[in-house]
């Protein structure tokens, strides 16, 4: 078998020199000192030595432990759970099997119910928590050899999970089935054709992370009748399916550069480019953009090492031409097949389109196939216990041929359920509480318009960057809000523990971002607002002296949609709430946060108080 190349070996000399320069960032220096793709092998050696007692996890090289092992999907949680890792998988198009779900439960179970849990992410992906380094090779080998999955190149400076439509193959208005595209792109990134092994070093040394999402149905962003179920506008490459105006050939409009970070919030912009709908065309496009980004992206300031900065440096027209030229190098026929972006706005609406409504993913809904339905299951904040993983696997075996789909809203969908078996599914004990005072955690029915649309990052429970715990607060407050007010449409509430915005608060109706808040501790004041008589300070100074910093959150409320038209391709950039709605962070305690959220729901979203029967 041919020896595996390194990520560095694919970089041109100019990119290597930039990485070697004094101004390059610390991560580039770590990658130069030892190529991170060595982790594909190092993880086995470290695990062997730890199991044999030759070393402990504390003796693992610090750069390997906290940086390079991310190339095999292992993210060390040094601050919260020292010596334990989150293992991020690759789940193209968010589709897993019941056997895979049971395997996830099996591998996290030994770490106990507090640490050994499974999370669904905002990229419709899976994260396994509590993993130790000595156990990692067994999990990796099982994923590769038994379950046809990998964790390789799922973190750090790699292309992240391929997001496709959760309704792929199920919708009557679908233009493309996103599944083969996501699988082909996953193979491009994580399969080495030179050695026929997992992990592709060709794309293993990018300047920063890179995200790709593909929508399957017509998208008019911001128009609820043509929704984007995969948040293409938050991705470095987003693909919107549409018909060519002249040939009626199915293809994609390309948008570029979307991302969220602590220093910039950028919605993807139109590349004014349409490509044919063949899988090979999509792979060529992504390969072209990745090659340009890999070789020319910044190796200095990591805050400016995302694709949008490179697009802006070129200018959209020049970058578009760069892409077309690159694709033409792969296959000269692409030069005459690509075109300017096509209109995504229907020129006429037939009666069926006029009746179209926003696409719900939770609950029971008819599919394009006769006598088949899809069933969306609420998984609060995407957190699954070992028991819940097994329950979902059992449901999939019983009702959806073992297939489970994940959504970017951190929920689960069972496809291809027989219509005449819905009653039986709804009657399953997992959806019914054993007592009258508790409610089941997993739900299909009676899902509130608030509780059903809550998204949360990991939070301070496991993430060392998070300033607040998010998942527990998000799930609990959703129930409280649901009991206090009524709304007439889904309200998307997202939580993120820090400004990196893994919880995507800027795309939510209401977003809550962890931040320190100031709270006046007036316990030392009397009823007249005065302090101790011996003090000459006035009441205001007394209050200032009693101010303390507590866990809190900045609140974002999404602004209206702005539409831009570029070269015939209309792309409505969704409203991203870039600035906090309130000038100051609000303390996280219910006493302070709950009334603020109720007020926002009433003021901005027309919520009304619920009238409860008197006892």
Describe this structure in words.
- The chain has a five-stranded antiparallel β-sheet with strand order 1-2-5-4-16. A five-stranded antiparallel β-sheet has the order 3-17-18-15-14.
- By secondary structure, the protein is an alpha+beta fold.
- The N and C termini lie far apart (76 Å).
- Helix 5 runs antiparallel to helix 14 and helix 16 (471-484) crosses helix 18.
- It contains 18 helices and 27 strands.
- It is globular and about 75 Å long.
- The model is unreliable at 347-356, 524-539 and 560-573 (pLDDT under 50).
Care to count the β-strands? 27
The percentage helix is 25-40%
Uncertain spans:
347-356, 524-539, 560-573
The main sheet orders its strands as 1-2-5-4-16
- Beta-strand portion reads 15-25%
Helix count from the secondary structure assignment: 18
Mean pLDDT: 90
Distance between the termini: 76 Å
The major β-sheet equals: 5 strands, antiparallel
Structure class: alpha+beta
Apparent shape: globular
The value of Rg in angstroms is 25 Å
Map the helices and strands.
Layout: H1 13-20, H2 26-33, H3 39-52, H4 62-66, E1 74-76, E2 84-88, E3 95-97, H5 98-108, H6 112-115, E4 118-120, E5 126-132, H7 136-145, H8 179-190, E6 191-192, E7 197-198, E8 212-214, E9 237-243, E10 250-256, E11 259-260, E12 265-266, E13 269-276, H9 279-296, H10 307-314, H11 316-330, H12 334-337, H13 351-354, E14 363-366, E15 372-377, E16 383-384, H14 386-399, E17 403-406, E18 412-418, H15 422-426, E19 454-456, H16 471-484, E20 485-486, E21 493-496, E22 510-520, H17 539-545, E23 547-557, E24 562-566, E25 569-573, E26 586-587, H18 590-605, E27 608-609
Parallel strand pairs: 8-9, 19-21, 21-22
Antiparallel strand pairs: 1-2, 2-5, 3-17, 4-5, 4-16, 6-7, 9-10, 10-13, 11-12, 14-15, 15-18, 17-18, 20-27, 22-23, 23-26, 24-25
């Amino acid at each position: 078998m041919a020896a595996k190349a390194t990520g560095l070996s694919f970089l041109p000399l100019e990119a290597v020199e930039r990485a070697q320069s004094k101004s390059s960032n610390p991560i580039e220096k770590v990658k130069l000192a030892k190529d991170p793709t060595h982790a594909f092998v190092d993880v086995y050696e470290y695990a062997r030595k730890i199991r044999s007692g030759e070393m402990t996890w504390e003796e693992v090289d610090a750069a390997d432990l906290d940086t390079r092992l991310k190339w095999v999907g292992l993210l060390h949680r040094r601050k919260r759970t020292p010596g334990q890792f989150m293992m991020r998988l690759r789940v193209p198009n968010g589709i897993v099997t019941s056997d895979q779900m049971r395997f996830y439960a099996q591998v996290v179970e030994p770490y106990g119910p507090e640490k050994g849990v499974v999370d669904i992410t905002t990229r419709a992906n899976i994260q396994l928590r509590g993993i130790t380094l000595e156990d990692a090779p067994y999990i990796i080998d099982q994923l590769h050899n038994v379950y046809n999955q990998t964790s390789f190149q799922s973190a750090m400076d790699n292309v992240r999970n391929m997001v496709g439509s959760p309704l792929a193959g199920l919708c009557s208005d679908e233009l493309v089935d996103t599944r083969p595209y996501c699988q082909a792109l996953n193979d491009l990134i994580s399969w080495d054709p030179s050695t026929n092994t997992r992990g592709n070093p060709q794309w293993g040394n990018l300047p920063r992370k890179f995200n790709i999402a593909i929508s399957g149905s017509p998208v008019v962003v911001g128009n609820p009748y043509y929704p984007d179920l995969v948040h293409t506008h938050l991705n470095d490459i987003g693909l919107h399916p549409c018909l060519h105006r002249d040939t009626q050939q199915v293809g994609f409009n390309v948008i570029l550069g979307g991302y969220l970070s602590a220093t910039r919030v950028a919605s993807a912009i139109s590349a004014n480019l349409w490509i044919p709908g063949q899988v090979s065309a999509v792979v060529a496009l992504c390969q072209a953009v990745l090659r340009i980004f890999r070789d020319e992206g910044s190796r200095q300031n990591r805050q400016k090492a995302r694709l949008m900065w490179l697009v802006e440096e070129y200018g959209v027209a020049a970058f578009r031409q760069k892409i077309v030229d690159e694709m033409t190098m792969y296959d000269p026929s692409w030069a005459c097949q690509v075109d300017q972006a096509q209109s995504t706005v229907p020129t006429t609406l037939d009666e069926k389109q006029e009746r179209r409504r926003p696409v719900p993913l939770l609950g029971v809904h008819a599919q394009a196939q006769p006598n088949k339905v899809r069933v969306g299951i609420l998984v609060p904040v995407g957190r699954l216990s070992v028991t819940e993983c097994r329950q979902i696997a059992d449901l999939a075996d019983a009702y959806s041929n073992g297939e489970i789909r994940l959504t970017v809203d951190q929920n689960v969908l069972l496809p291809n359920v027989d219509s005449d078996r819905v009653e039986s599914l709804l009657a399953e004990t997992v959806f019914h509480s054993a007592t009258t005072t508790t409610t089941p955690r997993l739900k299909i029915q009676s899902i509130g318009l608030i509780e059903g649309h809550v998204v949360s990052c990991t939070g301070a429970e496991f993430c060392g960057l998070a300033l607040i715990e998010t998942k527990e607060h998000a799930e609990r407050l959703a129930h409280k809000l649901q009991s206090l007010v009524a709304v007439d449409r889904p309200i998307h509430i997202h939580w993120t523990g820090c400004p990196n915005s893994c919880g995507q608060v800027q795309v939510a109706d209401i977003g809550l971002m962890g931040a320190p808040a100031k709270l006046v501790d007036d316990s030392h004041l009397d009823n007249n607002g005065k302090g101790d008589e011996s003090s000459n300070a006035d009441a205001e100074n007394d209050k200032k002296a009693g101010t303390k910093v507590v866990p809190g959150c900045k609140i974002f409320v999404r602004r209206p949609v702005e539409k831009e038209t570029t070269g015939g391709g209309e792309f409505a950039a969704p409203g991203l709430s870039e600035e906090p709605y309130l000038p100051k962070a609000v303390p996280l305690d219910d006493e302070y946060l709950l009334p603020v959220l109720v007020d926002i729901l009433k003021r901005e979203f027309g919520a009304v108080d619920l009238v409860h029967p008197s006892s």
